[in-house]
Amino acid sequence: MKPIHQRPTFLLLLLTFSNASKATNLTSLVNLFIGTASGANGGSGGNAFPGAAVPHAMAKVGIDVSTAPRQAGYIHDNSSITGISLLHDEGTGGNTDGGYGNFPLFPFIGSCTNSSGVNNPECEPGIAARAALRAAGTDIASPGYFSTTFVSGIQIETTSTRRAGLIRFTFPVSNATNYLVVDLTNDLGRSFSSGTISISPLGHVELGGTFLQSYGPSNYTAYACYDFDSPVLQAGTYQSVNTSSPTVFDISLSSTSNMSLEFPFTSSVSPIQAGGLIAFNSSQVVARFGVSMISSAQACSNAEDEIPTTSDGVWDWDAIMANSNNEWEGVLSRVLINVEKENSTVVELLYSSLYRASLIPANFTGENPYWDSPFPFFDAMFCSWDVFRTVHPLLSLTSPQEWSQIVNAYVDGWRNTGYIPECRANTTPGYVQGGSDGMPILGEFAVKYAANAEELGVPMDDLYQALVDTAENTPPNWLTVGRQNTAWKTFDYIPTDWVDPSGSVGLPTREASRAYEYSLGDFAVRQAGIALNKSQADIEKYANRSMNFVNMWDPNVTSDGFSGFAQRRYQNGTFAFTDPITCSPVDPIAHSCARGDDNDSGFYESSSWEMSFFAPHSVATLVQLMGGNTTFVDRVNNYFSKGYFTAGNEPSFNVPSIYHYAGRPDLSALRIRNVVFTDFSTQIGGIPGNDDSAAMAALLTFHLLGLYPVQASTQLLIGSPFVSSYTLMNPLFNTSTTFTVSGFDNTTLVASPPSGGRVFVKSVTVNGVDTGSVCVIDFADVVGGGEVVIEVDGDADAAALRGCGPAGLPDSLETGGFPM
Ligand SMILES: *[C@@H]1O[C@H](CO)[C@@H](O)[C@H](O)[C@H]1NC(C)=O
Ligand SMILES: *[C@@H]1O[C@H](CO)[C@@H](O)[C@H](O)[C@H]1NC(C)=O
Ligand SMILES: *[C@@H]1O[C@H](CO)[C@@H](O)[C@H](O)[C@H]1NC(C)=O
Ligand SMILES: *[C@@H]1O[C@H](CO)[C@@H](O)[C@H](O)[C@H]1NC(C)=O
Ligand SMILES: *[C@@H]1O[C@H](CO)[C@@H](O)[C@H](O)[C@H]1NC(C)=O
Ligand SMILES: *[C@@H]1O[C@H](CO)[C@@H](O)[C@H](O)[C@H]1NC(C)=O
Ligand SMILES: *[C@@H]1O[C@H](CO)[C@@H](O)[C@H](O)[C@H]1NC(C)=O
Ligand SMILES: *[C@@H]1O[C@H](CO)[C@@H](O)[C@H](O)[C@H]1NC(C)=O
Ligand SMILES: *[C@@H]1O[C@H](CO)[C@@H](O)[C@H](O)[C@H]1NC(C)=O
Ligand SMILES: *[C@@H]1O[C@H](CO)[C@@H](O)[C@H](O)[C@H]1NC(C)=O
Ligand SMILES: *[C@@H]1O[C@H](CO)[C@@H](O)[C@H](O)[C@H]1NC(C)=O
Ligand SMILES: *[C@@H]1O[C@H](CO)[C@@H](O)[C@H](O)[C@H]1NC(C)=O
Fold first, then answer.
1. Is the shortest distance between the CB of 218 and ligand 3 below 6 Å?
2. Where is the Glycosyl hydrolase family 92 N-terminal domain (predicted)?
C-alpha cells in the first residue's frame, strides 16, 4: 500500500474535497435519463437503462415499453408500458426488442371474475391488451430508485439489491379489488420456449422459463420468486386457451389451493400467454422478488437473504434504498470534483457517465448455471469488443477490486471452456464481433496489477495461459468464442476466400478488422509476458505477430488524395478492393457493415478510413505508412471534415486523440472539445449511439478528465481536462491523486474554443517534477497519489511547435516503445 502523499498543500485540498463531498450528494448529480431517447426513425437511441440497480447488479428492475427499439426495456417517450421486469442490459445493440425483461408484473384496477365467478372479459392479462400510458412527466429516477405513474393513477416504484428487490404499487382507489399479473412468458424478445409457474393461495409465486439470448445463438433459463406484503383475496393462474389464440384466456383463481402451470420445451418460440394473477384489496401492495439462474428455490433464498423480513414483520424499503444509494455514493466518490465550482453541464455528464460505467458487467456470482467454481461469474460482458477500449481501463483506475473479480471471471471462462469469453450475454456466449477482445483486458490487468495479483486473488499463470490459448488455438466454431488462429498463423493476415483444412468454421467476414484486433490481442500477450517474466521467445513471438496488421495494408488504394488503406486480401496475396468510405456515415451505397454473411467490405461497423487508424500499440507504424507527420495530420483532419468519423461506434474511439502521435496534442485537445460538445449532451438523446455496455459513458469520462488509455499498456494519453481539478481515489493503493489544471479556462468548454482560449497543455508535473511530456502519463502517476499539475495556455502557434515535449511521442512498438 502506498501512503497518501503528505504535502501540506495537498492536505488542504483533501480537506476542501471532503467538505465538498459531505455537502454534496453525488448521486443527486446523476441523470439516469441520458441516453434513453428512442432509436426509432434514425434517432440517437442510447438504450441506457434508467431503472433501479446497485453497482454491477444482476437485478436491474425497470419498466418496459410496448414499442421497439427498446433494448433496455425503457424509452423516455409517451409509449405505453407493459410491465415492470427484473433483469435488463445497459445500452446494448443487438435484438431491437431487447434482452432479458423477464417475469414482469403488471397492475390492474378492476375485476377479473364477476360475482358469479365467471371471467370478466375486461380482464386480459396477456401482453397484447396489457398496456398503460404513463402520466406525462411522472418518470423519476435516481441511483437505486425508479418511479412512474400511469394515467389511471397507479404508481409503481422500485428499489433493489444485487439479486433481489422491492416493487411498490400504489392504487388510486382504496376500496377496489386490485390485481397484479405475474407474467411467465413475456421477456422483451417474446422468446419463451418452456417454463413453469406455481402459486400459493397466500401469493407466494415461483417461476422459471427458458428464453433466447438477445445477441447469440443460445438460450438461457431464468428463475424468479415473488412474495407480497398484503393480504391476498384470491390467487391463481391464467393461460391462453391455445397457442393459436393467445388473447382468449382460461383464468382460474382460488383462495385455498396451490396452482401451477407447466409448458414443456418447444423448439420454436411459443406465443402462449400465461402467468399468475393475484387479487388484493389493499391500496398499496409491495412485491419482494428474488432472481436466479439456478432455481426458483435459489431465487427465493436470494430474496430472503438480501431483503430479510424485519422483526416488525416488514421489508425495510427505506433501508434497501439507502443502501443502494450509499453503494453508488461510494463508487462515484472515487472521482471527486468541486461540484459548485465546475461547469454544471460537465458535472452532470461526468457523474452520469461514471454511474453507467459501473452498472456493468453484472455480478452473477453464485448464479453460474454451467460449472461449479470458487471464482466470480459475471454476465453482460457484452461484448468485450465494445468495452475493452474504455470501460476496463476506467475500472483499472478507481475500481481495482471490482476489476480483478471481472478479470477472474474472464480467466475462469477460459479455465472451463478453453477460451476467454468474448461476448457473454444472458449468461452464455454471444457472437464474436472482431477479435477476442478480452485479450487486451487481461493483458492490461497484467501490466497494471501483476504485483498485486495475489492480494487481488487473480492466478496470473492461469491468466497468461488463458491469453496464450486464445492466441494459439482455434475453436471448432469461432462464431461465439476465440479467433481464426489457423488463418492468422498460416498467412500472417486474415485471408478472404480460404477454407480452413482443419474443418474449423466461423463467420469468415470482417477480415481486415479482425486482423487489426488480432494484432492488438497478440500485443496483449506480449505485454503480459513481460509483466509476468515469461520467456524471451514468447515475448518476441507475440511482439512480432502484433505487427501483422501491416499485412492488410494496400499501399495502392487512394481516397481523397490519401494513399494506402487497410483492405481485404486473398490467399494468393492480391488485395480485394473496398472503397475506403464504405460503411462510413457518408457511404453513398447501402452496405451491410455488421455481422452477417452479406458483409463483404472486410470491416466491421467501421470503414477502412477509420480502421486504418487502429493500431494503438504502434501508431508510429501508421504514421509512416500514411506518409509522415504532416500527411498523417492532414489525413486525420480529412477523416473528420469529410464525415467519416462514426462517433456512435467504438472503432472511432482512438481517433480524436491520435494527433498526439504526430506530435500535435494541441489538435487532439481541440478535436476532443468538439467531439464532446457535438456528440454528447445531458439530453435523452445525449449519447451518439448505443451506450454499448457503457463504452460510451467510459469514453466520455476519459475525455472529460483529459485522459485516453492506450489499451494493454500502462500509458494514458494526457489531454486538456474539462474541469479545473479532480481527485482520483484508488482503494487498493489507498491513494488520492489530485489533477489540477493550472490556468484552467472555462471559455474553452465549447465545441470550438475561442482563439486564445487556454486549452493547450503546456507542461505536466507529477509531485512537482516535470514529466517532460505533454502527451503521455503513466498509470503509476495517475493512481500513485499526490498532485499532478497540468499547465495550459492559449498560444496555438507555440502549442503546435511544442510537440509532445522533450520526453517524446507516446510509445509505439515500431520505434522501440513499450520497453521490457
Ligand atoms: C442523495 O440523493 C438521492 C437522490 O439521488 C436521495 O435518494 C438520497 O436520499 C440522498 N442522500 C442524502 C444523504 O441526502
Ligand atoms: C406521443 O408522442 C408523439 C411524438 O411526440 C406524438 O406524435 C403522439 O401523438 C403522442 N401520442 C400520445 C398518445 O400522446
Ligand atoms: C357474470 O358474467 C357472466 C358472463 O358474462 C354473466 O352471464 C353473469 O350474469 C354475470 N354475473 C353477474 C353477477 O354479473
Ligand atoms: C368505492 O367506494 C365508493 C364509496 O363507497 C363507491 O362509490 C365506489 O363505487 C367504490 N368503488 C369500487 C371500485 O368499488
Ligand atoms: C434451448 O434449451 C433447451 C433445453 O432447455 C435445449 O434442448 C435446446 O436445444 C436449446 N435451444 C437452443 C436454440 O439453444
Ligand atoms: C383455439 O381457441 C380458439 C378460441 O377458443 C378457437 O376458436 C380455436 O379453434 C382454437 N384452436 C385450436 C387449434 O384449438
Ligand atoms: C465560467 O465561469 C464564470 C465565472 O464563474 C461563469 O459565470 C461562466 O458561466 C462559466 N462559463 C462556463 C462555460 O462554464
Ligand atoms: C459480487 O458478488 C459477490 C458475492 O456476493 C461479492 O463477494 C462480490 O464482492 C461482488 N462483486 C462486485 C463487483 O459486485
Ligand atoms: C501497387 O501498384 C504497383 C504498380 O502498379 C504494383 O507494382 C504493385 O505490385 C502494387 N502493390 C500491391 C501491394 O498491390
Ligand atoms: C488472386 O485470387 C483472386 C481471387 O481468387 C483472383 O481474383 C486474382 O486474380 C488472383 N491473383 C493472382 C495474381 O493470381
Ligand atoms: C513527427 O513528429 C514527431 C514529434 O514532433 C517527431 O519526433 C518525429 O521525428 C516526426 N517524424 C517525422 C518522420 O518527421
Ligand atoms: C457549461 O458549459 C456549457 C457548454 O459550454 C454551457 O452551455 C453552459 O452554459 C455552462 N454552464 C454554466 C453554468 O456556465
1. no
2. 29-292
- Report the C-alpha gap between 577 and 281 in whole angstroms: 70
Q: Which three cell numbers stand for residue 166?
A: 422491492
Burial class (CB in 10 A: 0-12, 13-18, 19+), 340: exposed
How many A from CA of 11 to the centre of ligand 5? Answer: 60
Domain CATH code at residue 110: 2.70.98.10
Q: What does the radius of gyration of the chain's CA atoms come to, in whole angstroms?
A: 27
Counting the structural domains of the chain, the total is 2
pLDDT digits (tens, 9 = 90+) for 454-497: 999 999 999 999 999 999 999 999 999 999 999 999 999 999 99
Residues 420 and 512 in one domain: yes
pLDDT above 50 for 144 = yes
Mean pLDDT of the chain: 94
3-state secondary structure of 564: strand
| 593 and 671 inside one domain | yes
Q: At what angle do helices 536-545 and 460-472 cross, to 10 degrees?
A: 40
Ligand 10 neighbourhood includes 574 CB (under 6 angstroms)? yes
- Is the beta carbon of 56 within 6 A of some atom in ligand 8? yes
Say whether both 204 and 108 belong to one domain.
yes
Q: Which atom number of ligand 7 is nearest to the Cα of residue 343? A: 14
Work out the average pLDDT over 128-148.
Answer: 94
Mutational test site, ligand 9, from 554, 556, 558, 575, max ligand atoms within 8 Å of CB: 556
- Name residues contacting ligand 5 (CB within 6 A): 210, 218-219, 265
Do residues 261 and 189 touch, judged by C-beta distance below 8 A?
no
Q: Residues 513-567: pLDDT tens digits?
A: 999 999 999 999 999 999 999 999 999 999 999 999 999 999 999 999 999 999 9
Q: Is residue 212 in a domain? A: yes
Instruction: Tell me how far the alpha carbon of residue 109 lies from the centroid of ligand 4, in angstroms.
Output: 12
How remote is the C-alpha of 580 from its chain's centroid?
Answer: 29
Question: Which ligand has the shortest distance to the CA of 572?
Answer: 10
The arrangement of strands across the sheet holding 219-228 comes to 140-142, 145-149, 155-160, 164-170, 284-292, 219-228, 205-212, 194-199, 259-263
457 and 603 co-located in one domain: yes
Q: Are residues 231 and 283 in the same domain?
A: yes
Q: Quick one: which of 165, 148, 168 has its CA closest to 54?
A: 165
Do 409 and 468 have their domain in common? yes
Backbone angles phi, psi at 454, to 5 degrees: -65, -45
Ligand 1 neighbourhood includes 325 CB (under 6 angstroms): yes
Ligand 6 and 244: CB distance under 6 A? yes
- CB of 138 closer than 6 A to ligand 9? no
Measured CA to CA, the distance from residue 32 to residue 48 in angstroms comes to 8
**In-domain check, residue 3:** no
Alpha carbons 532 and 518: distance in angstroms, whole number: 21
Residues 237 and 380 in one domain: no
Range of the domain at 621: 345-815
For helices 391-398 and 344-357, the axis angle rounded to 10 degrees is 100
- Nearest-ligand number for the alpha carbon of 552: 9
Task: Tell me the three-class secondary structure of 365-382, residue by residue.
Answer: CCCCCCCCCCCCCEECEC
Q: 379 CA to middle of ligand 5, Å? A: 19
* CB of residue 554 inside a 6 A radius of ligand 9: yes
504 Cβ contact list (under 8 Å, min separation 6) = 474, 475, 476, 477, 478, 484, 486
Task: For ligand 5, atom 10, name the residue with the nearest CA.
Answer: 219
Identify which ligand lies nearest to the alpha carbon of 321.
1
CA angle 245-251-252, nearest 5°?
A: 145
- pTM for the predicted model, two decimal places: 0.95
Taking the CA of 120 as reference, the closest ligand is 3
Residue with cell 382460461: 250
Same domain, 526 and 573: yes
- DSSP three-state, residue 241: strand
